[in-house]
Design goal:
The protein has 121 residues and is mainly alpha-helical. The protein is built from 4 helices and 2 strands, in the order H-H-H-E-H-E.
Length: 121
């Protein structure tokens, strides 16, 4: 992980080292340890199916089963009207939410997913 911080600017190398450590731990967790939802160390991020609006359920139903099985997200937040929107999904993992969002933004919209973990992409 690179940084524009240096000790001359008053940014400590200790802070940079801690940031690098967290980055490496997250990458290791999602890249090497978590292979299915059973491997998650918490249930806090599993979505409650009864709270998903029907139009979102319909978009999610088109997600490939292999991608759906490797979904470790903390829920899909969807505004009322996404048609034509441009969406950026940081930490997109296997692209589960990106695929559903692409259905919701339609042909005039755009979705970009970014993930730091090669094993998820």
């Amino acid at each position: 992980m690179s940084s524009c911080c240096n000790t001359q600017d008053g940014c400590s190398t200790t802070g940079q080292a801690e940031g690098d450590k967290i980055h490496d731990e997250v990458k290791e967790y999602y890249g090497k340890k978590v292979k299915s939802q059973k491997d998650l160390e918490t249930k806090a991020c599993l979505m409650m199916p009864s709270k998903i609006p029907s139009h979102v359920k319909q978009a999610l139903s088109a997600v490939h089963p292999e991608v759906a099985a490797r979904y470790y997200g903390c829920g899909l937040v969807v505004p009322e009207c996404l048609e034509g929107a441009h969406v950026l999904d940081l930490g997109s993992g296997t692209g589960h939410d990106c695929f559903a969002l692409a259905k919701l933004v339609g042909e005039k919209g755009h979705v970009t997913g970014i993930d730091m973990t090669d094993e998820q992409v």
